[in-house]
Amino acid sequence: MPQLNPNPWFFIMIISWLTFSMIIQPKILTFVSTNPPSNKTHTTPNTTPWTWPWT
User: Fold this and answer.
1) Which has more confidence, 12 or 6?
2) pTM attached to this predicted model
3) Which InterPro entries does the UniProt record give (predicted)?
4) What's phi and psi for 40, nearest 5 deg?
5) Rounded to whole angstroms, how far apart are CA atoms 25 and 13?
6) What are the phi and psi torsion angles at 23 (to 5°)?
């Protein structure tokens, strides 16, 4: 059964993993977020208790 032979598939997996980790991932990580969450101010919501009509 050819699908049990790891010779071509293991090589393809290693090459694709290395391509992603060494070429694609650093390019993606260089993008700067347009709206970083650290610039947002934390606001506390004004919460009021719910008045249940049957209590």
Assistant:
1) 12
2) 0.45
3) ATP8_metazoa, ATPase_protein_8
4) -85, 145
5) 16
6) -115, -55
State the burial class of residue 3 (Cβ atoms within 10 Å of its Cβ: 0-12, 13-18, 19+). exposed
d(CA 55, CA 33) in angstroms, rounded, equals 48
> Mind giving me the DSSP string for 1-55?
-GGG-HHHHHHHHHHHHHHIIIIIHHHHHTSPPSS-GGGSPP----------TT-
**Token pair belonging to 29:** 């990580």
Q: Residue 15: pLDDT band by 50, 70, 90 thresholds?
A: very high
Rounded CA-CA distance 34/32 in Å is 6
